[in-house]
Amino acid sequence: MAAGVATWLPFARAAAVGWLPLAKKTMPKPPIDNSSRSDEILYVNVSGVRFQTWKNTLDRYPDTLLGSSEKEFFYNEDTQEYFFDRDHEMFRHILNFYRTGKLHYPRHECIQAFDEELAFYGIVPEIIGDCCMEEYRDRKKENQERLAEDTEANEASDAPLPPHSTLRERLWRAFENPHTSTMALVFYYVTGFFIAVSVIANVVETVPCRPPKGSVKDLPCGEKYQLAFFCMDTACVLIFTFEYLMRLFAAPSRCKFMRSVMSVIDVVAIMPYYIGLVMPENEDVSGAFVTLRVFRVFRIFKFSRHSQGLRILGYTLKSCASELGFLLFSLTMAIIIFATVMFYAEKGTKGSTFTSIPASFWYTIVTMTTLGYGDMVPNTIAGKIFGSICSLSGVLVIALPVPVIVSNFSRIYHQNQRADKMRAQQKVRLARIRMAKKGTTNAFLQYKEDRVDRDGDSTALCVKNRSAFEHQHHHLLHCLEKTTNHEFTDEMTYSELCMTESVGFRTSRSTSLSSQQGAHNHSSTGCCPRRARRRTAMRLANSTVSVSRGSVQELDTLHHKGGAPPQTRSSLNAQMCDLKLNCGDPDFSAAIISIPTPPANTPDENLPPSPAVVPGILRNSRATVFTHDTVKISSL
Amino acid sequence: MAGCTSRCKQGVIKLIQSLQRLVSGTLTKDKIDDELEMTMVCHRPEGLDQLEAQTNFTKPELQILYRGFKNECPSGVVNEETFKHIYAQFFPHGDASMYAHYLFNAFDTTKNGSIKFRDFVMGLSTLLRGTLREKLEWTFHLYDINRDGYINREEMTEIVRAIYDMMGKYTYPALKGDVPQQHVDAFFQKMDKNKDGVVTLDEFIIACQEDETMMRSMQLFENVM
């Protein structure tokens, strides 16, 4: 029940005294109303602006924040007021809702901000008064459309392909977005060129050419150079067929593709040719054959894939379907009425061209659209009067739906422009967003780096410009590292490691374990290096285990006999990455799990300091402590 | 015959008017808008002190009442439509419009089709803070639709029917037969002492005072405000 009605309730209850003489039974006991009748003023402080209102006003809507006991959470004992850290201008509207029972939507406010405020105060937007509801709904719909466009633009297929896309997916992307690859662009322009060629050929073949020798009549070029045109047509159709089949193959959903408008246009464009091939050359069906050739003109619609303007026009017409339908219907009505009238007005005259009502349709249409060919003209006075009325009304009827169509077109066109602009700015935006995201991850990696460099020194230097939040955040990330026994690294080094890991078998500078096997690994196929690596890994693992429990850092720089490059941490990380990718070798895990345990018996101080080291840095310091490590191993 | 000619004349006048409008355009619409504005009058009640003197409410109570009243009706008056609408919200099961109509008339002591705050508060004062006799008088005036000082069967039947209408269709036990009529008969049995078919004010008051049930129920309504 509306809050206002609550005001009348005591009145209605009092008026119930009027039923008492009629009552057959005693009245039930009334509920005990303990609330004090005196009203008190509440103070609500919203970002410094103090609002005051009666308590009863707020109690009107008990299922909102201010009307329920939820507001006690915001009560400030010291200042004896309710404090909300929100926008005070929006709060005005919220409070007015309590006072008047109607929620208004301020037109100058952002719709999302308003929605958030409503959500905070526990008010459903459906109760916005009728005066503002339309505006609210329009703005909300506009905003949602814009968000949908944004997400669409975000997922724009200009984004890089997922690494493991099949041929089909790549092909489809090439077709849908020709700008992604050069091949696609070339194909796009070639098809465009052939569409143009095909359309021009269709047009030119009807132009009269000079007649061949011995004949007087002009011949259309199509018949004079029949073979040439046939060859051109064949070539075009072949290209179109090829394109259609490729698209069909690449389409993610073939049924949906076959039902789409563009595919229908494609089919209609190439069917006449095949039907013409199949059909025999006799006279009966040649009429139908000629009709089929008309369909070749539909090839021009294939341009809509290439032209955005055409697509916009088509979309506008689709969205204005109801206006166009209305135009058509009203025109039909008017045509029938006027044709009938003109026919009967001109019926008597001799030699009148208005032979029947359908014949008068032509006159009516020509007059209403103000064409006025003059092939049919009324002769009687009545006919002339009605004819003039007809032309005047024609102007009106046609002019009415046109602004609607125009405004629709304008809206869609602007939408498209905005989408295009956004797509153009998308790259910049994404780059900026990525940089911002990197900032936070980089902060943590930087922090680790600082810890490495300054370990042993006073930690005061580490505490440079880090807020309490950052400290706690970094601590949390550190805890996660300890939990999972893996470390955070940045994208570049990770991809580098993966790359080197995969090509590592072949290059001498490789950092994979298999390189130590020497030259004979280089010639082996892809599988062998892995097996070889496993063997060496086992050896490594054993040596690892047998080496001190705590010789963490030695693993980083294990150096095997021979000139093989050192086994750096980065390579082990590569193995980690390899693990993640394919082989889950238990030996590897043995090797790796032992990594983070702190060094128990490393006598040396020039070991690479802490486990929290960015592999990228280690790559530079590859040539560190392997001498003593060699010593260690040989000591086993 | 006379009706025909007058209707014809009216038709002709309307036609001439519409032709006139066709020629002069639609600027004549403004006159109607002026009339509308005249009806948005604002009524103000008498001073707080006077109302306090005339009713049995204290100043704070009057303040609270007026704030609620003014919030609902910024123009200061309640008309019958609003009244019926409010009552319909209290009794959604049935049709409260007839009873609201009679109640409206009972409150509208000045008989001008609208309840001002003064009427509202006076009525409430009688019902909540009045003496027993005042309450019974008020009830009598509610039942006496035509204000002739007597309640006859027809008036009573109308009131009772209006009350039963508020119950709606779905009641338990179901309304079978002419329950309102029986109710009226029972009422008249009790109230009409001299069996003359009408109930006067004195008969009414005496009969009510003899009714124990009613006296007990009266006291329950003391604490509504």
UniProtKB/TrEMBL annotation, chain A:
Pfam families listed in its UniProt record: BTB_2, DUF3399, Ion_trans, Shal-type
Keywords: Ion channel, Ion transport, Membrane, Potassium, Potassium channel, Potassium transport, Signal, Transmembrane, Transmembrane helix, Transport, Voltage-gated channel
Transmembrane portions of the chain: 183-204, 224-245, 324-345, 351-373, 385-406
Subcellular location: Membrane
Primary location class: membrane
Thylakoid found in the keyword field: no
Molecular function per GO: A-type (transient outward) potassium channel activity
GO biological process, one term: action potential
Region (Disordered): 143-164, 509-531
Family designation: Belongs to the potassium channel family. D (Shal) (TC 1.A.1.2) subfamily. Kv4.1/KCND1 sub-subfamily.
Subunit structure comment from the entry: Component of heteromultimeric potassium channels. Identified in potassium channel complexes containing KCND1, KCND2, KCND3, KCNIP1, KCNIP2, KCNIP3, KCNIP4, DPP6 and DPP10.
Protein name per the record: A-type voltage-gated potassium channel KCND1
Species per Swiss-Prot/TrEMBL record: Gouania willdenowi
Species lineage: Eukaryota, Metazoa, Chordata, Craniata, Vertebrata
From TrEMBL, chain B:
InterPro entries on file: EF-hand-dom_pair (IPR011992), EF_Hand_1_Ca_BS (IPR018247), EF_hand_dom (IPR002048), Recoverin (IPR028846)
Record SMART domains: EFh
Keyword Ion transport: yes
Domain named EF-hand: residues: 95-130, 131-166, 179-214
Alphabetical UniProt keywords: Calcium, Cell membrane, Ion channel, Ion transport, Membrane, Metal-binding, Potassium, Potassium channel, Potassium transport, Repeat, Transport, Voltage-gated channel
CDD domains for this protein: EFh
Subcellular location: Cell membrane
PANTHER family given in the database record: CALCIUM BINDING PROTEINS, KV CHANNEL INTERACTING PROTEIN 1 B ISOFORM X1
Similarity comment: family membership: Belongs to the recoverin family.
Protein's recorded name: Kv channel-interacting protein 1-like
Organism of provenance: Gouania willdenowi (Blunt-snouted clingfish)
